[in-house]
Amino acid sequence: MKAVRLLGVMLVAALGVFFAAGCGRSSDGEGAYEVYYLNKEGTKIVPVSCGFSAGPDSSQEDIGKLLEQLSADPEDTEYKPAIPEHVKVIDCVLEETLLTLYFNEEYGSIDRITEPLVRAAIVRTMTQVEGVECLTFFVGDAPLADRDKTPVGVMTNDSFVENPGEQINSIQSATLTLYFSNQEGNGLIAEKQDIHYSSNISMEKLVMERLLLGPEGADAKSAIPEGTKLINVSVSDGVCFVSLDEAFRNQDYNVEEPVVLYSIINSLSELSTVNKVQVSVGGDTSGVYRDSFALDELYERNLDYVAEE
User: Fold this and answer.
1) Cβ contacts of 84 within 8 Å, gap of 6 or more
2) Alpha helices, DSSP H, located in 45-189
């Protein structure tokens, strides 16, 4: 495989070769590159036309120019650079169609709400370059990982379009009603959480991720066994199918069986898209969960276990 190290290209601007004009609202010509910036509030990304277009056999130089623009202050003060000032690209390698960017450790200081937008802005900007179809990020010597320490892996434009018609161009707000176990493990406590989230995540997945994170209040605790990970969640005809990994079978018998299940079922049923819920382990719906909850059954909301306020 042919690998091209491009760090030197990024120094073009410092050497005085880089063009003087930045990215503005309008393009100098047809086919000009766009650079994705964050809006001033840091809630969405916005494409802005640049003053240069792809030239023949110029992909390496264009990569360097676009990385410079992603880090530079835009002319319009309504926007801010996608790559924060303290975050640096210390190396980049183009291998076939994969562009690998190496960031300094400061990349890890980007907050978890903004970070997906930063990734989306970089990927959408760089995949305009001829020959760059996908990207992967490293922070220091380690692949970029999410908050569960799972490597993010290779990203394309499609990585930021999970739901039909929705793109990761903005941060949205919502109030979720989630059900957690009380401290005794024999009842549920309803907790409202005001959250901000990237628009490419489904509400069903968002609910499950927040359940796995646990409650914000001190009077509740997670009903789901510690270490459980979400494999998949989807909705069809009002039925939400939730697949959890094998750690879901690691029981905390201080939490009663119905409390575990209805923590999930009731939380998801708060969504207008969900009428019934099926929970599986690794996609397997055979057998029962613990003692009596058949995994192949569809369960509806049951508020009998919710403690009175």
Assistant:
1) 106, 110, 118
2) 59-71, 115-126
Residue 8, pLDDT > 90, answer: no
Q: What confidence score (pLDDT) does residue 85 get?
A: 93
Separation between Cα atoms, residue 95 and residue 97, nearest integer Å:
6
Over residues 39-45, the mean pLDDT reads 82
Q: Which residue is listed with tokens 């992909």?
A: 59
In whole angstroms, give the CA distance from residue 112 to residue 287.
38
- Cα 64 to Cα 4: distance, rounded to the nearest angstrom: 13
Read off the amino acid at residue 128: Q
Domain end position, chosen among 128, 160, 192? 160
- State the Cα–Cα distance between residues 75 and 51, nearest whole angstrom: 12
Count the residues in the chain.
309
pLDDT at 16: 34
DSSP alpha helices (H): ranges in the chain? 59-71, 115-126, 203-213, 257-269
| pLDDT (mean) for 64-85 | 92
132/119 Cα distance (integer angstroms): 15
DSSP state for residue 44 in the 8-state scheme:
B
Domain hosting 75: range is 3-160
Same domain (yes/no): 93, 113: yes
E strands, 140-229, are 142-143, 171-182, 188-198, 220-221
How confident is the prediction for the chain on average, in pLDDT?
83
pTM of the model: 0.53
Boundary-marking domain end, from 160, 193, 224 = 160
Within a domain: 165: no
143 and 190: one domain?
A: no
Residue pLDDT, tens place only, 111-143: 877 888 899 999 999 999 999 999 999 999 999
Q: How many domains does the chain have?
A: 2
Say which residue, 300 or 236, is predicted with more confidence: 300
- Quick check: 237 pLDDT over 90? no
Tokens of 219: 């009077």
The tokens describing 9, both together, are 């290209």
Distance between CA atoms of residues 208 and 60, nearest Å: 42
